[in-house]
């Protein structure tokens, strides 16, 4: 099959499955899986794809049409201009999570000690360390698979062996007490009701990284116990929140001082910053 025929046929197939950016996704899949760049595709549309190439590509297109995440197909995801390896068992990094990193880059003290709860792919901790090499970071996750991604991505991107400490832990459970300058987290926050209405693509991501059950607030409640064992008297807690839980999270942290509410480009509150000092 010629490249142009493959593109035309599968673009239509993908669009019928509800994938609006089908053409670009095909370009990305071809480049990642058979090293065929967009330039090659446009310059040599008559080029024939081999049977081996078709045998590799067609099942991937079929999976994508079942709304299997593109990032899992490509095996990677962009975050803060860095490329993170991702796959089944780890949450795909989201653009709104970059707000936590942006805040930390600008505001965390020099040589600060940072604890991340729920490191997942390692995107937050790794990006922070990449842009702020002075920071001392401890990354924690309840999932062994997620910690494997955190370790691999951090070592690959930062080009050093074990660039920060890692703990397999449910929040603070297995972490020795230490007065951190900041605790940061993009915790699971979807409620059980939210999980009934999520996009099909989210069904392929690990449920434990999306929802803690019930109202979606239990991990926030655990993080709120950071003081005094895991947070300095002037330390901060920086949290990503869902679009509909801002007030609930503020109530959980009512004993802390709200420092800042960071909104995304749609003016939705996405990150809350609290300080440990009493109100």
Architecture overview:
The protein has 279 residues and is an alpha/beta fold. The protein folds into two domains: 3-66; 76-275, Rossmann fold (3-Layer(aba) Sandwich). The chain contains twelve helices and nine strands. The chain has a seven-stranded mixed beta sheet with strand order 5-4-3-6-7-9-8, covered by helices on one side. Strands 1-2 form a two-stranded antiparallel ribbon. Helix 2 crosses helix 4, helix 6 (98-107) packs parallel to helix 7 and helix 7 runs parallel beside helix 8. The protein is elongated, with a radius of gyration of 21 Å. The protein starts with a helix and ends with a strand. The mean pLDDT is 95.
CATH class of the largest domain: Alpha Beta
Widest β-sheet, arrangement of strands: 5-4-3-6-7-9-8
Shape assignment: elongated
Residue share in β-strands: 15-25%
CATH architecture call of the largest domain: 3-Layer(aba) Sandwich
Helix content: 25-40%
* Total E-strand runs: 9
Distance between the termini: 68 Å
The domain count comes to: 2
Structural class: alpha/beta
Number of helices: 12
Compile the SSE list and pairings.
Blueprint: H1 3-16, H2 22-34, H3 38-43, H4 51-65, H5 70-74, E1 76-79, E2 82-85, H6 98-107, E3 113-117, H7 123-131, E4 136-141, H8 144-158, E5 165-168, E6 182-185, H9 192-195, H10 207-210, H11 218-223, E7 236-240, H12 246-252, E8 257-263, E9 269-275
Parallel strand pairs: 3-4, 3-6, 4-5, 6-7
Antiparallel strand pairs: 1-2, 7-9, 8-9
Helix pairs in contact: 1-2, 1-4, 2-4, 6-7, 7-8
């Amino acid at each position: 099959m010629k490249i142009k025929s493959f593109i035309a046929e599968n673009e239509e197939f993908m669009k019928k499955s509800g994938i609006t950016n089908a053409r670009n996704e095909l370009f990305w899949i071809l480049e990642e899986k058979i090293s065929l760049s967009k330039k090659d595709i446009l310059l040599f549309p008559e080029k024939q794809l081999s049977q081996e190439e078709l045998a590799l590509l067609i099942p991937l297109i079929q999976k994508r049409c079942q709304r299997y995440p593109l990032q899992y197909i490509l095996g990677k995801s962009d975050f803060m201009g860095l490329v993170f390896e991702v796959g089944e068992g780890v949450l795909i990094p989201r653009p709104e999570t970059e707000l936590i990193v942006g805040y930390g880059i600008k505001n965390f003290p020099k040589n600060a000690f940072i604890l991340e709860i729920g490191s997942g792919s390692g995107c937050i901790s790794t990006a922070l360390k990449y842009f702020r090499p002075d920071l001392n970071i401890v990354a924690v996750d309840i999932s062994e698979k997620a910690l494997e991604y955190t370790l691999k991505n951090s070592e690959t991107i930062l080009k050093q062996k074990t660039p920060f400490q890692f703990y397999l832990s449910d929040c603070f459970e297995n972490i020795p007490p230490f007065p951190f300058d900041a605790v940061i987290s993009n915790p699971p926050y979807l409620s059980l009701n939210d999980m009934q209405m999520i996009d099909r693509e989210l069904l392929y991501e690990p449920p434990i990284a999306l929802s803690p059950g019930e109202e979606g607030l239990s991990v926030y409640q655990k993080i709120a116990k950071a003081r005094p064992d895991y947070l300095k008297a002037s330390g901060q807690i920086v949290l990503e929140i869902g679009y509909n839980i801002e007030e609930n999270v503020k109530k959980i942290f009512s004993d802390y001082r709200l420092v800042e509410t960071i909104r995304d480009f749609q003016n939705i509150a996405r990150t809350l910053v609290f300080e440990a000092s009493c109100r």
